[in-house]
Structure formats: C-alpha cells, structure tokens
Amino acid sequence: MEMMILSVLGPQLHCEWSLPGYQVALITSVVFIGMGFSSVAWGNVADKYGRRVGLTVCMCWTLYYGLLSAFSPVYGWLLFLRGLVGFGIGGAPQSVTLYSEFLPVKARGICIMLIAAFWAIGAVFEVLLALWVMPTLGWRWLLGLSAIPIGTFVSFCYWLPESPRFDVLSGRRDKAMATLTRIARDNGKEMPRGTLIEYKQ
C-alpha cells in the first residue's frame, strides 16, 4: 500500500501544488533511494539483535514517518518524510527471512511465493481506498489511513516469535526450545528427541 500510494499521490500533488514533472517523479524516486540505503542497515540490525526486533523497529519507523508525512506543509517536507518512509520499507523483507525460518522444507518454496499475493492485494486495496477517500477527504487522509495495516501489524508484534535459529546462534538455547515447544504444541505434535546444535555455514 505504501508503494502503490505513490502513483495516486503524484497526480494529485501535481495539481494542488503546481509541481513540475521532475518534482512529481522525485516523490517516487526518493522512496526507492531510501530503500536502497536502508536494506543493508536493517539486515545488520536483524542479524545482530534478532529478526523480530529488526522487523518490529523498521515497521514502527515506517508507521511513524508514514503518518507524519500526512501533515507535510510543503513539498520539501513531503519529499524528506517519504524518503524516511522508504528507509523503513527497506527492512520489510526481514518478514520473509523470519517467515522462512519457521516453514517446513516441503512448503517453503510455495509459501514464500504466496507472500507476493499480499503485494497485489495491498495495491488493489490502496486504489479502492483512494477512490473512496480522495474525492472528499483528500490526499492527507489517504496517507493517514494507508498506515492502518502497518499499525495493525505493529500492535501484534508482541506475539511475534523470534527465530529459533537466531536464538541458537546467539547462545539462547532455552528461548529457542521454548519457541519450538510452543510450535509443537500448537500443531498437536510431540517435540522430536535430540539436542539443538549450533550450525554455521
């Protein structure tokens, strides 16, 4: 949704603020520039502090600056804040990393590919939201309401489990065992016998 909103926002601001074409294009470009700079940084955060922490922090960042950009008084502020939104979005792929570390090998490929469906769903939902909001409330409300899914995710991050693999590699076997035990219980299975060992490639 945060990506699709750019195609809706550009034409509206072109009319409202009388922006030339290159300034409209820059609103989109600055988001991708932010993503490019931040992806390595968020990867390092997730590797050092955990997948769960990295994903939660980057989503909180995106939520904060996404909401703040709805209050942009002038073009310069909007450009700056949308760049910071892009910086946060650069950490979103950590969700795929965390997700894949919980998937069984047989289902991993298809399940990760199915995540792409949510990009399509989000894009369609953003267009429908724009059709509903833009004619009466304007682009600021669209920016604010588009942050609701991220806000929902952030509010549920407390229940997001940490990757057991990350816990084992960080020397926290007890936490990894607790997570795996909970998974086994939720699936109605018994924990397999054996000892967790640290495996580094």
TrEMBL record:
Task: Please give the superkingdom of this protein's source.
Answer: Eukaryota
| Family annotation (Pfam families) | Sugar_tr (PF00083)
Is ATP-binding a UniProt keyword of this protein?
no
The record's listing under Gene3D superfamilies reads: MFS general substrate transporter like domains
* Residue ranges of domain Major facilitator superfamily (MFS) profile in the record: 1-201
Q: Which residues cross the membrane?
A: 20-41, 111-133, 139-160
Question: Where in the cell?
Answer: Membrane
> What membrane topology term does the record carry?
Multi-pass membrane protein
Which coarse location class applies to the principal site listed for this UniProt protein? membrane
Q: Which InterPro entries match?
A: MFS_dom, MFS_sugar_transport-like, MFS_trans_sf
Family listed: Belongs to the major facilitator superfamily.
Q: Which PANTHER family match?
A: MAJOR FACILITATOR-TYPE TRANSPORTER HXNZ-RELATED, SYNAPTIC VESICLE GLYCOPROTEIN 2
Question: What name is this protein filed under?
Answer: Major facilitator superfamily (MFS) profile domain-containing protein
Q: Which species? A: Xenotaenia resolanae
